[in-house]
Design goal:
The protein has 18 helices and twelve strands. The chain is an alpha/beta fold. Helix 6 packs across helix 18, helix 9 packs parallel to helix 17 and helix 17 packs across helix 18. The two termini are 25 Å apart.
Length: 451
C-alpha cells in the first residue's frame, strides 16, 4: 500500500475506532486500489481525494417510537447513510435487524457505492435501517413501526435524491407499509422513491429473484473464463432467505447439485440435493426454522450451529461455496475447512460475508473468489431497472428484465476481469472489482470538483 493510502487508513481508523465493519470494508478497498492511486498519488493527496472517498456525505440518525399491540411504547434507532452521490441518487437497502448500528450501516453504504458503480447504471451509494427486530412481531406492530420510521426518513429521500430498497428484515410487506406512509405524508404518487415494491403499485418483475440469479450469472461467467462450469458441481449455500433461495434455483437450472442450506440456528444437509420447494414453503410461507426440512425429508441431516465459531455448512464437502447469509460468516478457520474439503470457487451472495484473512487465504490457495460488490449487484441493478420503469410509467416482462440483468452481470464480470488483467492481478477478481469501480467513481468525483 502507498504511503498516502496508509496514512489515510490510519487516520480513518483513529476517527472510526469503534466501527470494525466499516474499517474492514475501507481497508480491503484501499489495499486493492493501491496500484491505481500510485499513478496519480500527488494529485490525489493534494485534493484529499481518498479522505473524501472514505467519508460519507452525510449520516442521518433518528429515534423511532412505536406502540406494540399491548399499548407499550418502544423506541428504536433509525439510520440512513448517504455515502456518495457523485454518479446518481443514493441507492441502497434498508435493514431491520437487532445487529444494526452505525458501523454496519457505514460499511454497507461504502460497499454500495462501489457495487452501484459496477452496474454501469446512474446510481450513487447509501444504506439505512434500524435495530428493530421484525421477528415475532404482528403485522400491525410492523406497520406501526414502518410508519414511524418513514415519518422521519421521508425528509431525506426522493426519486432524484435517495431511493431506499429492502434488505434483511425488509421485504415486500415492509416496503408496502413504508411506501404507503410516504405517499400519505407527501400527498404524491412518487413510485420511484422506493424499490422492491409490489407489482400492483410499481414493482418490477424479476426483482425478487435478481440478487440470487445475478450471483449465479456472475459465477457462470467467472467459471467459464477459467475453463469450468456449474453443471454437475456440488454447492453449499448459507442462508435460506431471498438471495439463497434464488441462487439455489438458478444453480439447479444450470445442472448443479445444491446439498446444503442454513439459517441462524443450523444447517440442513441433503446428499440427494436440496428440495427447493420445501425450503420455500418453510421460509416464505410458514416463516419457520430450516430444521423443519428434516420432517419433510427424513433422509436429510440437521446440524445445529449453536455455540460454533462458524457455520457447520462450511465443513461439508463441496466444489463451490456461496455465502448468502450475512457479513463475516466465513472466517479464516472456515476458509481452511472449505479449501481442505475441495472447494475451488466461492461466490459472495451476502455483503462482505468473508473476512479479509479468509479472502487472502482463498486467493493464496488459488481459489476463485466472486466478490460481493460485483457478484451480488444483481439486486440493486434490478432496483435501478425498476426506477427506470417507474420513470417511464411502464413495465417490462420477466424475460425482458432477466435478460437485462444477465447482460449487466456479464458486463460486471468483464469489467472485473479487465481491471485485474490490466494491473497484472491474474484471477484476483476481488481487486479487479474494487479497481473497476474506483476508477468510475474517481472520474465522476474529479469532474465535479472538490465536493
Amino acid at each position: 500500500m502507498e504511503d498516502y493510502l496508509k496514512r489515510v487508513l490510519e487516520e480513518t481508523t483513529k476517527k472510526n475506532c469503534s466501527e470494525p465493519e466499516f474499517l474492514q470494508a475501507v481497508g480491503e478497498v484501499l489495499c486493492s486500489i493501491s496500484p491505481v492511486v500510485k499513478k496519480h498519488e500527488t494529485e490525489y493527496e493534494k485534493t484529499a481525494f481518498i479522505e473524501r472517498l472514505v467519508e460519507p456525505e452525510r449520516i442521518i440518525s433518528f429515534r423511532v417510537p412505536w406502540t406494540d399491540d399491548n399499548g407499550q411504547v418502544h423506541v428504536n434507532r433509525g439510520f440512513r447513510v448517504q455515502f456518495n452521490g457523485s454518479i446518481g441518487p443514493y441507492k441502497g437497502g434498508l435493514r431491520f435487524h437487532p445487529s444494526v448500528n452505525q458501523s454496519i450501516m457505514k460499511f454497507l453504504a461504502f460497499e454500495q457505492v462501489f457495487k452501484n458503480a459496477l452496474t454501469g447504471l446512474p446510481i450513487g451509494g447509501g444504506k439505512g435501517g434500524s435495530d428493530f427486530n421484525p421477528k415475532g412481531k404482528s403485522d400491525a406492530e410492523i406497520m406501526r413501526f414502518c410508519q414511524s420510521f418513514m415519518n422521519e426518513l421521508q425528509k431525506y429521500i426522493g426519486h432524484d435524491i435517495d431511493v431506499p430498497a429492502g434488505d434483511i428484515g425488509v421485504g415486500a410487506r415492509e416496503i408496502g407499509y413504508l411506501f404507503g406512509q410516504y405517499r400519505k405524508i407527501r400527498n404524491t404518487y412518487e413510485a420511484g422513491v422506493l424499490t422492491g415494491k409490489g407489482l400492483e403499485y410499481g414493482g418490477s418483475l424479476a426483482r425478487t429473484e435478481a440478487t440470487g440469479y445475478g450471483l449465479i450469472y456472475f459465477m457462470r461467467e467467472m467459471l467459464k473464463a477459467n475453463g469450468k462450469d456449474l453443471s454437475g458441481k456440488t454447492i453449499v449455500i448459507s442462508g435460506s432467505g431471498n438471495v439463497a433461495i434464488y441462487a439455489c434455483q438458478k444453480a439447479q437450472e444450470y445442472g448443479a447439485k445444491v446439498v446444503a442450506m442454513s439459517d441462524s440456528n443450523g444447517v440442513v444437509y441433503d446428499k440427494d440435493g436440496i428440495k427447493l420447494g420445501i425450503i420455500k414453503k418453510i421460509k416464505e410461507e410458514q416463516r419457520l426454522r430450516i430444521k423443519e426440512y428434516i420432517k419433510e425429508v427424513p433422509t436429510a441431516e440437521y446440524i445445529d450451529s449453536e455455540g460454533k465459531d462458524y457455520s457447520p455448512i462450511w465443513d461439508i464437502k463441496a466444489d463451490i461455496a456461496l455465502p448468502c447469509a450475512t457479513q463475516n460468516e466465513i472466517n479464516l478457520q472456515a476458509a481452511k475447512a472449505l479449501v481442505a474439503n475441495g472447494v475451488f470457487a466461492v461466490g459472495e451472495g451476502a455483503n462482505m460475508p468473508t473476512s479479509m484473512e479468509a479472502i487472502n487465504y482463498f486467493l493464496n490457495n488459488n481459489i476463485l473468489v466472486a466478490p460481493a460488490k460485483a457478484a451480488n449487484a444483481g439486486g440493486v441493478a434490478t432496483s435501478a431497472l425498476e426506477m427506470s420503469q417507474n420513470s417511464m410509467r411502464y413495465f417490462w416482462t420477466f424475460e425482458e428484465v432477466d435478460k437485462k440483468l444477465n447482460n449487466i452481470m456479464v458486463n460486471i464480470f468483464n469489467s472485473c476481469q479487465a481491471a485485474a488483467k490490466e494491473y497484472g492481478l491474474g484471477t484476483n477478481y476481488v481487486a479487479g472489482a474494487n479497481i473497476a469501480a474506483f476508477r468510475k467513481i474517481a472520474k465522476a468525483m474529479r469532474a465535479q470538483g472538490i465536493i
